[in-house]
Amino acid sequence: MSGLQIVAFLGALGGLGATIAATVSNEWRATSRASSVITATWVLQGLWNNCAGNAIGALHCRPHHTIFALEGYIQACRGLMIAAVCLGFFGTVFALVGMKCTKIGGTDGSKAKIACFAGANFILSGLCSVSACSLYAHRITSEFFDPLFVAQKYELGAALFIGWAGSVLCILGGTLLCFSIPCSSRKARSPGAYRGAASHSHVSSYQRGQSRSMGQRPPPDYTNASRVQHFDKNAYV
Question: What is the value of pTM for the model shown?
Fold first, then answer.
């Protein structure tokens, strides 16, 4: 099962990389103001910066002024993405310790527990990331299709799709990492179970034999010597 653990770890690690890329990206939502190709202007917005670019290739960004002036859903998405990155980081560390192909982590039982804990961290990281991306996307779509919303309307940015892909990889990698533990632990414990069953059967058979010997008297010994002594006594009488 070490091969399955390696595949799960690589998938979860790729998902963590995609989550980090989506967190620092400035393209969570985008729009274009263009009367022609030459005068095209793109407006991009992320969790940390507001950016504007043109067809020439110039891109200017400025950070959000203050955290208290931000809308609530942006702050929630920030917290969820930071939590996703932290959980993925701890999951990576625990996975390196708990995998069977590494030399650290102690016995097989302790390594199995650590690997399962790492898989849980990856799953939680994916859930936090997919929640943040879905919340942001829901806000964009609700504003875009709202006829009463008169401000600038945006479309889904590339960072949302990167975040969704990273979330799926983290969840799948963590799930495979958790499912790879029971099979390996059963293989490791099967010889001990057979030895325990053999020793139990030996003890039970010994107890049954001992109880039978104590509960019943041994049969009389009709040997040749006893028969000779018996006939000699009758002969003298």
Answer: 0.72
